[in-house]
Amino acid sequence: xxxxxxxxxxxxxxxxxxxxxxxxxxxxxxxxxxxxxxxxxxxxxxxxxxxxxxxxxxxxxxxxxxxxxxxxxxxxxxxxxxxxxxxxxxxxxxxxxxxxxxxxxxxxxxxxxxxxxxxxxxxxxxxxxxxxxxxxxxxxxxxxxxxxxxxxxxxxxxxxxxxxxxxxxxxxxxxxxxxxxxxxxxxxxxxxxxxxxxxxxxxxxxxxxxxxxxxxxxxxxxxxxxxxxxxxxxxxxxxxxxxxxxxxxxxxxxxxxxxxxxxxxxxxxxxxxxxxxxxxxxxxxxxxxxxxxxxxxxxxxxxxxxxxxxxxxxxxxxxxxxxxxxxxxxxxxxxxxxxxxxxxxxxxxxxxxxxxxxxxxxxxxxxxxxxxxxxxxxxxxxxxxxxxxxxxxxxxxxxxxxxxxxxxxxxxxxxxxxxxxxxxxx
Length: 426
What we know:
Blueprint (H helix, E strand, L loop, with lengths): L4 H4 L3 H4 L4 E10 L9 E5 L4 E3 L7 H14 L3 E5 L16 E8 L9 H8 L7 E6 L7 E4 L11 H11 L6 H20 L3 E6 L5 E2 L2 E2 L11 E8 L4 E5 L3 H12 L3 E6 L2 H4 L9 E4 L2 H10 L8 E4 L4 H11 L6 E4 L3 H13 L4 H4 L2 E2 L11 H19 L31 E2 L3
Parallel strand pairs: 8-18, 12-13, 12-15, 13-14, 15-16, 16-17
Antiparallel strand pairs: 1-2, 1-5, 2-3, 4-5, 6-7, 6-11, 8-11, 9-10
Helix pairs in contact: 7-13, 9-10
């Protein structure tokens, strides 16, 4: 949903107040075009903003969204691949999608256009999160403006809105308190980590997803299911070295969503117009600048440092500083001979073997890259692989054509399974 917000202001159906419904991917399995949390808006006239599957199932989803707007109810649709029925709507890639469809309404407890307009008012560089209820017995949304600092007990407004989202008004104080604490314990890691995922909460005894029901021998309570989308301010990528390689890496890193800083101690190099596209250009000794940024709290565990200076007088003190910090990635350019000399110098400076194991040197994946543009692809490919591994994915740095089996592995991620991207019942 958050990906759609930059386009919402220009989307005519929203601007003119048309009735709309939102369709969201809440479960995935196998090879699918878009991940959990991907959304598409559908207007009452059938106009569309966004895409769920690059065309495979959109027509069927639009029809379901129009039906939801007509009867006012939410619905859940499942799409897979049918070898038996060639004309069935499904994913030719063989994956599975579970789609939650909800009409936008005006009721205080429902998902409203005003929620989306609040989201659209935040720039892409600001932190923002949306918590939506997507089980069969609930709906609505809560906007969290500062997910990085989210602590449920310290936000009265968020606590009140989340209590309404969970349907706690129908519960006694002890049960409501337990459910709220369980929700907070699972929401906080997702929100503060800037991640998307499903949180499932076991409904209190005697309730079906937070709604009081009469006991039934065959009634199986569905978990209260929350879809969490959290976006933190862009992670920083620091390029040290105002040269051809730095100029090529700069736009490539921005394509991945990084806030890019170029740092070089030489004003004549850093001041070149080809680096004007950087979010920040700094003329300073690299190791001093990095130490000052860390001391000021502007470096965190998502920060990437790419050392492209290829000059020991810059490289060694800079890498010594970088390897002493908790950074997501530290890479340095150079040949294997340069790397061996670099390692010897860092060991002599007191850098431990454990810290050196975190150094990506020579920098990048082995793609046979030679030109600055090719080296930029090699570096960004290694960054993507590293981010995927950090998220728990099994990454193979090889050609897809040489592999076997599905591209995306793992069972379907939906409200009835407990997988990597979701949090289990409490």
